[in-house]
Request: fold
Amino acid sequence: MPSPATKPDARIGVRGAGKSYGNLEVFRNINLEVGDAEIVAIVGPSGCGKTTLLRCIDGLIPLSSGEIAVEGERVDHPLPGVAMVFQHFGLFPWKTVSANVAYGLRLAGASKAEIAERVPYFIKLVGLAGFENAFPYQLSGGMQQRCGLARALAIEPRVLLMDEPFAAVDAQTREILQFELIRIWEMRPTTMVFVTHSIEEAVLMGHRIVVLKGWPSSVHEIVEVDLPHPRGRSTLAHPRFAALREHVWSTLMDEAKAAELELQT
Ligand SMILES: Nc1ncnc2c1ncn2[C@@H]1O[C@H](COP(=O)(O)OP(=O)(O)OP(=O)(O)O)[C@@H](O)[C@H]1O
Ligand SMILES: [Mg+2]
Reply:
């Protein structure tokens, strides 16, 4: 089931990446290539460095060793065309839905005419038509997350990074948003890397799943998700879905059991 970390048409290249915060070594020697229009899910125990790795790919924080490149360009600051969706929406509370979506485009240097055209399109795409003038406090958690998604998608990113994008919404909304994101990806295939604690979400949406493990962590396994496309509700009933979920689950549980044993001895 493991697959090679290299892809011939890599959009993102992570080579020998290591990160420490002072004396705390979070991860070491991470190698990963993400292909064009590929969706990669990152899973691993809490505190293993998933958010840290995503922030390094986004150029928000520097690596301690190794390097990361997006389309061959070394990441040492946030690069244009790389968008991030945060767990807690990250919207401006004083801006309307339209203004929040427009903000990302303005930052990306879009013209007024482009903004006027794209904002309504992406608001509609994520199912928020009619709420253009609403403020975040007037929206449910799921709607706020849709707004965050629209803002990220509106710049038509080369790379979309998402840190537990649906963790803060209820189970039904989460499922709806997962299928929406798959639908949006089918319409506009984009390179995506997302972090999740949900193994089901990783298997449903990921083309490959990167399992981080160990202290400091590194890539323990890369699981190829050989489920047919387009993915949808029927994917959940596919026999391969259950087998892959079980595989990833037992891989992660080994670690939890080992940690438990260590505590007991
Ligand atoms: N800015 C920081 N300064 C110092 N240590 C940090 C900083 N950010 C994260 N850490 C530490 O680095 C480790 C990895 O944190 P990170 O947030 O990347 O983990 P994670 O895998 O995303 O965890 P979770 O699944 O709980 O979100 C943790 O031990 C955390 O305490
Ligand atoms: Mg995290």
Q: What stands out?
A: Residues 88-156 form one domain. The longest strand covers residues 10-21.
